[in-house]
Amino acid sequence: MTWYAIDAVDDAIDATRRFLFPFSLVRWVKLAVIVLFIGGGSASNASNVPSAGGEFTLPDGFPADGPAAPNGAALPGDPFAVPEFLLAIVAGIVVLAVLLSIVSTVLEFVFYDALRTNDVLLWDPFKRRFLQGIRLILFQIGVSVLVFAPVALAGYGLYVADPAVPSRLAVFVLAGLVLLGVFLLWLLVLTFTDDFVVPIMVLEDETVLGAWSRFWPTLSGEWVQFLVYLVVYFLLALGIGIGQSIVTLVLAGIVVALGAIAGLVIVGLMGGLAVAVESAVGLALLGLLVLFVILALAVVILPIRILVVTYLTTYQLAVLGGANRTFMLLPDSVLPDPDAIDDGGDRGGNRGEADSPA
Hints:
Layout: H1 4-20, H2 25-38, H3 84-117, H4 123-159, H5 168-204, H6 208-221, H7 223-270, H8 273-278, H9 280-323, H10 349-355
């Protein structure tokens, strides 16, 4: 029996090499723009935005709005009142988070399009895939609400229940186990949506639900293969993540150290830090140095991130194509061995026969 998740490890290496090389500066710059947004997922998390309903108290001595008391002191204000500037900041953060989330999601489709066509474009596929990205975001929100709203209501019911009930602790333990199971189910749905359903949406111009209906027979029929995929992907991501962190820290440390040395040289030539800071020329030179260091860090880090994101994505696509040949999104130009997957969706038939002794 062939394990798609294991065979795809080597296939993804070959597909990554064929997709990224020979090196093209324009192609890599476009890929850098894409992975800058999709590399770490959503750029902001709306759940971390401060609540506008929280308590806000003014500092001592700060005059409160409203009429003054007869003795000249300000009357107590509403403890839940929030200044308009703080509301504006919160609204700005929310809007920015939503926009970045939309851009990140749509660029995920753009990246799949680039892998599908072996041609990296930005604006045209962004416009074409925009509505699909919005549908994906709405689907993710809907699944999250559908899964966690009943859990939240049940948790609230347990919270307000009579604490004298002897079985309350057992109920809490059982509720915790159910919550864990619900969380794992939610995580699986969103993971398979991102890894396999979105490529089908790109390949067949489907909606989220339409792509899920197309993918479900493959998932239910090959569920053991996809279980192996989860294990292999976790190990790959863990190993690659550790290696990426080490290489990034080393290279970033070299860049920062060289920048620090250059800064010391500038300060020394200017006659000291105080003189450099007070001088327009010194500030300009130090500012240019900081900008150069930031650009150098981007030049060092982004290519590594491009390699990692491309490999992990082509690995997912190789597994999907191995499970069902009709879902193979990678073109023949980047596939290491297109004939290794037969028309019936079974992988490795020819390869297995070639590897077996005569």
